[in-house]
Each structure stands twice: as C-alpha cells, then as structure tokens.
Amino acid sequence: MTATKIRVKEGSPHPLGSSWDGEGTNFAVFSANATKVEVCLFDNAGEREIDRIALPEYTDLVWHGCFVEIPPGTHYGLRVTGPYEPESGHRFNPNKLLLDPYARAHIGAFKWDPALFGYRMESGDDLTFDDRDSAPFMPKCLVADRPSGAVHPQNFHRVPWDDTLLYELHVGGYTKLHPDVPGRLRGKYRGLATKEVIQYIRSLGVTSVELLPVQSFVSAHHLMERGLCNFWGYDTIGFFAPDQRYAVAPEAVLREFKEMVERFHEAGLEVILDVVYNHTAEGNELGPTLSFKGIDNANYYRLVPDQQRFYLNYSGTGNAVNLHHPFVVQMVMDSLRYWVQETRVDGFRFDLATTLARDENGFNHWSGFFKTCSQDPVLAKIKLIAEPWDLGPNGYQVGGFPPGWAEWNDKFRDAVRDFWRCQTTISNLVPRLCASAEQFNHEGRRPWASVNFVTSHDGFTLYDSVSYNERHNQANGENNQDGTADNHSWNCGVEGPTEDPAILELRQRQMRNLLATLLLAQGTPMLLAGDEFARTQNGNNNAYCQDNEISWVDWNLRAKNGKLLQFVRDLAELRHKHPILRRNTFLTGERVGRSIRDVTWIHPRGYPMQEKHWHDAAMRCFGMLLDGRAHIMNGIPQRGQKATLLIVFNGCPGRTDFTLPTAGRGNWLRLLDTNLGEMQPSPPLKPGTNYAAEGHSLVLFQFSKVGAE
User: Exposure check for the chain: N or C terminus, fewer CB within 10 A?
Assistant: First the structure.
C-alpha cells in the first residue's frame, strides 16, 4: 500500500509521537534498530486501513515526517520493519500493527487472536515468524489536537505532606453500584466526578484520592478465556493514554479525564495516579507484539545479557522496562510531565518501584531514574510515592528511596494487624506508631515519608481481615493458590459471615482498633475505599481479575454500618485538628528542656515504661503520651502542637485498669474509646485515676486545664 494523496512538509524528531501544529501532523518514533517505520491510517471506524506512509526522515535515532492532510482525530497505528532475530533481541514484524508509545488516546478494543503474536503462537516457538495481519484485532491511536501548552492558571493549592490523608480507590469499581450516579456514568470518570460522589469523599476528611491504574492497559488472554479480566489495571500498554473503558464517549476520553480532575480540585481534593512503568502488557518471549516489542525490543526492554531471546523479569509478569536507555527514560519522564502539566494530576504512586532503580548491581539508591526525577522542576512540586519492593533479588527496599519520596510501609500494616490479633510484642508496634524512624529518618526525610496502611487494594479488605483466617479466591480460577497465603488476618473466632452478636461486636471493635491506630499514628495514613463502612470481598484477597460484585463497592453497606462510617469521619477530624498527630519531625523520646519529652511510653500503672518492659512478651497494654509542651524542637516552634494527648493501646483479651499519668496542672478528657463504638467525651478525669480499658480496645485522651485545681 503506497501513499498517493498525502503531502509532506519538513518534519521534526521532536516531540515524539503524533502532534498537530495547525497545518499538519508530525510523527516521530524512536527506534535504533529499525530499517523502516510506517504510519498506517484508518477510516473513522478504525476498521479499514486506507493508507500507509513511510516516515521519510531519520535523525538521531528518531524516524519522523510531517503530513499536511492528516488532522486531529485521525485513527492510526505503526508498522516497523527490521530484523526478526529473537536470539539477538530483535523482534520486528511489519505484519503487526503497533500502538504509538506516545499516543494520547486509544480507540477500539483488543480482540485476542493468534495474529497479535509476532511468532506462530500455536507452535509455542517464538523463533518462528508469523505473517498474519494483526490490525483487525488492535485498537488504534488517535492523532491528538494541540496540547493546551503551559499549565492552566488554577487556584488549587496542593496539600502539604503533613496534612495528607490518602484514599485509594478504583475508578470503575467505586461507582459501579452507586445509587446516586446515573446508570450510564457508573464506573466512568464522569461518574466519579459527580457532585454526590465527590461530596461524600470530601466528607470523610481525606485530602487526596489515589486512583488505581488508569493508563491504557490490557486484559491478558488467559483471563479473557476464563471470563475474567485485568480489573486492577496493572498491565499498561499506553503511558500517555487514559484508559477508554472508563470513558462514556471513548473518543472524548482525555477530556472526560481532565474534567474529572478539575472537579476534584474544585472540591479541594488532590488526584494521585497509580502508575506502572516497571513492565508492560507484552509479557515475555511468548507474549504478544503490541507496541514496544515490535518498535525496538532490544532497547525498550531489559534482556538477559547472554541470552537476549529472554527477558529480565523483576515484576513477575514477564518483562522489565529498560530505564537504562536514555530514550526510554525520556519516555517515562515525558509521560509523568504530561499527566502533571496537561491533565493536572498532583502526584504518582509507582508500582513495584524497586524495578525502576535497578542497575547492573541491583537496587541503586541514586539510579539514573531517581536522579532524573529529583532534578526535574515539574516533578519536584508533586507527590511521589513508591511501592518499595519487587520480585527480583534484594527487591524489598522499604526506607531505601531517596529524599523527596514517600513509600508504602507494609511494616506498619503487619505490626498493627499482628498486635491486635495478639501475635507480636509492643516493641514491634511502637516504632510503627512513630513513622518507622529506623527506616525513614535519614537524609532529612520527614515522618510523612512513611505511608501507613492496614489494607490496600492488594489483600483483604478491613472487614475481611477480621472475618477470615484464610483466603477464598476460588472465583479467580487458580485453585485458591493465588494471592497472599498469610495476610495477618484474624476472624475473631468464626470464619466468614455470622449472626452471633458477640462475634459481630468484636469484629466491629477490631475494625475500629485498626482504623484508630492508622489515623492516630505518625506518618501519612492511607484508607482503602469502602473500609469506612466495612466493604467485603467475601474473603477474596486477590480480586485483580474480578470486575463484578466481588470488587465493586456495595453502597448498601453505608447505611448498615453508619456508626463505623461516622467513626472514621471523627478520627479524620481529630487528626486534622491536632497537628501533634502528624508531626513534621520524628519523635525521639529525648528530653526537651526541663523533664519534658515529645513522647513517653506509659506503663498501665501510670509511670514511664522501663527497659525490662519492652522485652516482656506478656506486656500487651501501654500508653503513648504525646506531650504538647514539647512544641519547640531544635529552637523551631512546631505548628499547632501544644495539645497533649494520651493514646492507650490494650491488646489484652481482658479489661485493664490503666492509671492516667500526670502531664502538668489539669485533667484528662476522654475523646474516644473503641469499645464504645462512637465518640463519647468524658467528664474530667484526674491524673492517677484508673480507667477501665476494655480488652482489645484503644482509648484517646486529651489533657486539659479545665477543672484543674
């Protein structure tokens, strides 16, 4: 097929991708090993290939050309010619239509077919060559209109880290069953942007919404064959394109996404994207050829050095993106800046971020990727959150990321769950309450670098963590072998649903304990959407493939568990009201002037704990005294931290009489007790009073001069 009507004008190797300048569209594609790159144009339905144009220029490893008659909205794809030599790392096959890595939008669905593979898929031998055309089974790229350019003026100011309260949710699953969202908007960007949804999210006291992946992704063939899908979205194939499945009108997907972000900003809420730059949906040597593999496999991916037919696989999904190559690093950085500058998002959570920092010697604290992020003036102003592990050697790197980064802290999750199920000592819990200083207090990092959570999308929900001992993942079709075997759960005596009022009350109290520990601890808390009213996945702790009622938020539970919902709102209000709960410096326990300490650990008898108590396995009740009189640290006033609070943790199965300590002239006021189920302030309680802390309960007190003698 030869182009006969398209007029060519001088093109440019910059920017990469397709870009309309008002007169024509410039195409620019990086490939160091190709011998020819063609742009294939399709009709408005994206079904019939109407023209094929070879990019005429090659400059600095970039194939490019500018064509006058190609306007915004044109459907297109790429075909790239070069050697098909898998053993040398090359997998070019011009029979395969490829997605432009820089495409701003994809239109149409993947239709799984053997033609999507560069080799004869039926043979199972990736050294064979397949000459079937994959275009009928591929989505197409859309030529984008001119970007809006500089960031639009806005009045929205990003939330300081020490004020941040994260809320993790799935765009589709959050509103799929929402009664206040019109049917056609449910599960869509526009559904999430409705006034009722945003008002509800804001009412929780959260500041920042963290969205599971919304960059264009693929559902694996084996899932589709089983009637399942890639619900979570951790198989990206387009780093610049919002996924069209969440759009009401797929051709308007970018506009709908940007409008959603704008609605959140108008409500004072941040939007943070969960992004997957560690691997792509093309898998290993037996995976399909959809984009990068067919454009320049040897440079886009990390290959086994002495066996370049095969891929390094730190993610467990088949491949690792090659962030050693400058053009690949540029692609990731261009993607990040694009989402910030064009769609206005406020930060990113990086999936399996250890992979991004691996060099020849393993994880590198100052890898090229981290250096590039740290010096970038756009990224310096936003939130960067790492999932600090992967599946490769020495992949667990909690606390190992550079200054400026926050990290998911699973040590907090494990210690908190274990404490409340009587499976760990207080010496393991205490550091987590102080933002895990041994992991994060270096290079000037702050307590907010520890992103604390007790649940996330990956694992049991809050309700399931106190209702199940074992995973129940049968619906995933993997013989219940997938997901985490031990997720630090505790079923309070009965597995699964029950009508026993004593068990139900104990579960409710344990949920309140977990939530209160999360929201009263130092560091940055993250809530999983739906936990505030006890959402359940019926024991499925790996619902990555369940686009159904297992994963969708059941809004009927909002009324059923209204007391728990109000409890979460009250906790969030307390956290925002008392900056001493979200300090910007680490607690030390050292004396600050006279005999005052910023934190003192209190024995149930009311005096400071001694060394011997930390090693007592039977010691399961203690207090955390945050003394507001220590509000000047290193000569610097700590903002609003003059309140003095006492948090009593009773992990004992039975009631403990806790002697309230002294903290100056005044009395203690109880703010909450998880045994009571709701906020019930008490009359003044004198220091020295014994407070009956029920078994498995948390109590919060504030010291007040009201009623002091």
Answer: C
Q: Which two tokens stand for residue 292?
A: 């990068």
CA distance linking residue 129 with residue 112, whole number of Å: 18
Q: What is the pLDDT of residues 35-92, one digit of tens each?
A: 999 999 999 999 999 999 999 999 999 999 999 989 999 999 999 999 999 999 999 9
Q: Whole-number mean pLDDT of the chain?
A: 93
Residue 632 near residue 461, CB atoms below 8 Å: no
Burial class (CB in 10 A: 0-12, 13-18, 19+), 53: buried
Active-site entry in 100, 130, 270, 351: 351
Query: For this structure, is 122 an active site residue?
Result: no
Give the architecture-level CATH label for domain 588-704: Sandwich (2.60)
Rounded to whole angstroms, the Cα distance separating 438 from 455 reads 22
CA 323 to chain centroid, in Å, comes to 21
Known catalytic membership, residue 387 = yes
State the maximum Cα–Cα separation within the chain, in Å, rounded to a whole number: 95
Distance (Å, whole) CA 521 – CA 431:
10
C-beta separation of 570 from 516 below 8 A? no
Report the C-alpha gap between 474 and 482 in whole angstroms: 9
User: Which amino acid type is present at position 529?
Assistant: A
Q: Which of 600, 476, 582, 445 is nearest to 539 (CA)?
A: 476
At 151, the amino acid letter reads V
Indicate which residue of 130, 346, 387, 598 is catalytic: 387
Pairwise CA distance, residues 451 & 446, whole Å: 11
Retrieve residue 556's tokens.
């009927």
State which fold the 161-278+321-579 domain adopts.
Answer: TIM Barrel (3.20.20)
Q: Give the pLDDT confidence of 126-183 residue by residue, as tens digits.
A: 999 999 999 999 999 999 887 654 445 456 789 999 999 999 999 999 999 999 999 9
Q: How many CB atoms lie within 10 A of CB 368?
A: 16
CB 527 within 8 A of CB 579: no
Task: Supply the DSSP string of 278-309, one letter for each residue.
Answer: S--TT-STTS--SSHHHHHHHHHB-EETTEEE
Q: Which two tokens stand for residue 569?
A: 């709102």
Residue intervals in the chain for CATH 3.20.20.80: 161-278+321-579
The helix or strand, by DSSP H or E, that contains position 560, with its residue range, turns out to be helix 557-560
Q: Which of 309, 286, 356 is nearest to 328 (CA)?
A: 356
- From CA 525, how far away is CA 503, in angstroms rounded? 28
Amino acid 642: pLDDT: 78
Please tell me the least confidently modeled range out of 104-118, 433-447, 589-603, 683-697: 589-603
What is the rounded CA–CA span in Å between residue 492 and residue 487?
15
- Assess whether pLDDT exceeds 90 at residue 2: no
Residue pair 664/629 in contact by the 8 Å Cβ criterion? yes
pLDDT above 50 (res 709): no
Using CA atoms, how far apart are residues 204 and 192, in angstroms rounded to an integer?
15
Can you identify the CATH homologous superfamily of domain 8-142?
A: Immunoglobulins (2.60.40.10)
β partners of residue 703: 668
Do β-strands 450-452 and 140-142 pair in parallel, antiparallel, or remain unpaired? unpaired
Mean pLDDT of 564-575: 97
Highest mean pLDDT among 193-197, 224-228, 660-664: 193-197
